[in-house]
Structure prediction request, 295 residues.
Amino acid sequence: MKSLSPEFQAHLDSGTTTLCSCWKLTRRDGVVFGFTDHDEDLTFNSVTFEGVAGMNASAIESSVGLSVDNLDVAGALTSDSLTEDDLISGRFDDAEVEIWRVNWSDVSQRVLMRKGNLGEVARGRSAFRAEIRGLAHKLNQPIGRIYQFTCDAALGDNRCNFDLSNAAYTAIATVTKVADNRLIEVAGLEQFTSDWFARGLAVATTGANQNLTFELRGHVNDGAYAILEFWQPAPNEFEVGDQLNVAAGCDKSFTTCRSKFSNGLNFRGFPLMPGNDFVTSYPRRGDGHSGGSLQ
Prediction:
C-alpha cells in the first residue's frame, strides 16, 4: 500500500490532476539520469528529470506472489544523455530504475510506484523500447557457488587473488589495421604466444570505444603483429592508433590455473569431483573392482 501525503491525496481527490511519470536510472558505474513524460524538466531529490518528447510507458503488470512485475518504456532518441551508442554498448544494462508518479505543478507531491532494473532493450533507427523488470527478477539469478570442475571466480578478483598488473599478463595494444568491428590487428603483443590473451578482456582506452570492455575470443601471434578477435562486435568503429589494455585469458581449468598463473592454491573449482563414470558405476563380485555385472 502506498503512503501519500495529505496534500497529494487531496490533489488526487480533486478530480482535476496534473500528473506525470518520472524515471530515475542509475547505471552500474554510478551515473544517474532522469527522464519524464512531462514536456518540461522537473527537479527533485537532487535529480533533474529531462522532458523527453515521445517518452511513454505501458501499464505495469503486477501479480501476487513472487512473479516478476514488468512494464515497457518507449521513447525517441532525442536526449543528449541517452544515445544510441550508449544503449548498444551496454552502458545501461541492468541499470537500477525508480518510477515516480509526480504532480508536475508541485513536485513535492509524489509517490514512488516501482523499483526495478532495466532489462532487454530493443533499438530502432530513431527510437528505443526498454523492458523494466521488478525487484523479484533477482530471485531468478544464480546465487552462491556451483559444484563443478571449473573455477567460478573471475580472473584477478578478490577470490582469485591473482595480480593482473604483472607485465607478463597485461599489455597495451595499439590498433594497426581494422578488418571489422570483431577482428583487429594490433602492435605491442608480439612477445606473447598465440592464445595467451584468448578468453581475456580488452579495455579500450582511446577512440570511439573508450572505456568499453570486450571479451576476447581469440589471439593469434603472427610474428610481426598480433590479431585479436572479440566475441561481440564493438559498437563503434575502431581506428588505426586506438589503444587497448589487454589482460591474459583463463579457461577456468585447474591445469591452466596452476601452469599459466601459478595460482593453484586459489583455484575455486573442484577438479577432483567424481565424473559420470564413477556415478554410474556399480560393484561386481570377484575382482574387487567396480563396473560390469554380478557374476
Q: What stands out?
A: The two ends are 70 Å apart (CA to CA). The chain has two domains: 6-140, 170-247. Residues 6-140 form a domain with the Pnp Oxidase; Chain A fold (CATH 2.30.110). The CA atoms of residues 177 and 185 lie 5 Å apart.
